[in-house]
Write a structure and sequence with these properties.
Layout lengths: L2 H9 L13 H6 L4 E5 L2 E6 L3 H10 L2 E4 L5 E5 L3 H8 L12 E3 L2 E2 L5 E3 L2 E6 L2 E5 L5 H10 L6 E3 L4 E6 L3 H9 L11 E6 L2 E6 L8 E6 L5 H12 L5 E3 L3 H6 L35 H10 L3 E8 L12 E5 L2 E12 L4 E9 L8 E6 L2 E8 L19
Parallel strand pairs: 3-15
Antiparallel strand pairs: 1-2, 3-11, 4-9, 4-10, 5-8, 6-7, 8-9, 11-14, 12-13, 13-14, 16-19, 16-21, 17-18, 17-20, 18-19, 20-21
């Protein structure tokens, strides 16, 4: 598509100035983005054509996704480590410089405000790579009353996700063989023809993948085109984060599978909570109380019978046991690989037993569903932990 045609297409989207565009916006339009939604007050491409083909492109080859909406909360200053620990119930005292951690941000009631990836760039230099919620404002508010010497900002940082089994080969084409030494959930600073980056072995796909954090928004278009050119021999396509693959992998989506009224124990994320020892964080007493009492509901996987779903759910579907409401489906989709409808649901603890039969009220009728373990595919996460370049 020519630049003039791309500009003409963009005019039809009706974008205003109150929602921000990413540094890759024009590139995504050139490469076939047809629909967008809003995430962290920014436009994110949600459609590059058939979502099933996007899924197969991801699991067979590689896709490049604009995820600049994953805004960074940057925490610096003499007390940055202590302050960052205050935000999350996960013990980060052993997080090394260059390491990444999946963490939760909790409020005073133990509810989840966000589930970012934490990157430690220095002894007192952290990024929180956010899901869709205003943690920048939360962190700045906490800082005001913390008595700690920290600076909380949103830096000029915009990530891309390069995901799929061939992503390692594409990264080697861009950065050389040294990229093979980058371990899962670690990061390093890099440049690509003078473009400043941080690269991490992370991603929201349940596939082998990388995130490239651009540190100069003016270079967005240039970076996108360099990656696409390097990926052409490997079948790289422009794409969007795959709902099919993330549900297969049991990956959570904020506002869908959790919110501030969800606590970590309901999601089975006990491993991210450090209730013992001297670790201090917001919500510690509330989470200790919840742990002592136990939860009344739990997230489960469901296999839903009936015809293949035409697309992801756009509302929470009631879950019944007999005629009694026991919960809701939070994320549902048809998996072409598993050849069944799969879903994540929050249900009463009494209904959460594996192999239990429940009913789901979909827009087209009530159908049976079976409680199953998650993840639905690759339960031990062997794909994401694989050596660079392998599948």
């Amino acid at each position: 598509m020519t630049d003039s045609n791309a500009a003409s297409e963009a005019e039809h989207f009706g974008f205003g100035t109150q929602i921000r565009k990413s540094p890759y916006f024009d590139a995504t339009v050139r490469w076939g983005a047809t629909r967008f939604s809003v995430y962290n007050h920014m436009y994110i491409p949600r459609d590059f054509g058939d979502p099933v083909q996007n899924f197969w492109n991801l699991v067979n080859d590689a896709i490049l996704c604009d995820v600049a909406v994953e805004r960074q909360v940057e925490i610096t200053g003499p007390d940055a480590a202590k302050f960052t620990q205050l935000l999350t119930p996960r013990d980060i005292s052993q997080c090394a410089v260059g390491q990444c951690k999946y963490v939760l941000i909790t409020n005073a009631e133990g509810g989840i405000l966000n589930d970012p990836v934490l990157l430690r760039l220095g002894d007192n230099h952290f990024w929180l790579s956010l899901a869709d919620n205003d943690v920048l404002l939360w962190a700045q508010g906490v800082a005001v009353n913390s008595g700690l010497d920290v600076t909380i900002t949103e830096p000029d940082v915009s990530p891309l996700q390069l995901q799929g089994p061939k992503s390692g080969e594409i990264m080697k084409a861009l950065f050389g063989d040294r990229i093979e030494s980058l371990k899962y959930y670690w990061s390093e600073a890099a440049t690509l023809d003078g473009i400043p980056l941080v690269i991490s072995r992370t991603g929201w796909s349940s596939e082998l993948g990388y995130e490239l954090y651009l540190r100069d928004g003016s270079k967005g278009d240039e970076l996108w085109e360099k990656i696409m050119a390097a990926g052409e021999p490997f079948g790289l396509t422009a794409g969007h984060t795959s709902t099919i693959r993330r549900i297969e992998g049991g990956m959570l989506s904020y506002h869908a599978d959790m919110d501030m009224h969800t606590n970590p124990f309901e999601l089975g994320l006990d491993r991210l909570i450090s209730l013992d020892g001297d670790t201090d964080f917001i919500g510690k007493q509330a989470l200790r109380d919840i742990w002592n009492v136990g939860v009344s509901r739990k997230q489960v996987g469901l296999e839903i019978s009936g015809e293949p779903l035409s697309g992801p759910n756009t509302a929470f579907w009631p879950v019944l046991s007999g005629c009694e409401p026991v919960g809701k489906v939070t994320s549902a989709v048809f998996s072409p690989r598993l050849k069944t409808n799969i879903a994540l649901a929050m249900v009463a603890i009494e209904s959460a037993t594996t192999s239990n039969t429940l009913q789901v009220q979909t827009p087209t009728g009530t159908v049976e569903a079976t409680v199953v373990n998650t993840p639905f595919y690759d339960p031990k996460k062997n794909i994401t932990k694989a050596a660079t370049g392998s599948t």
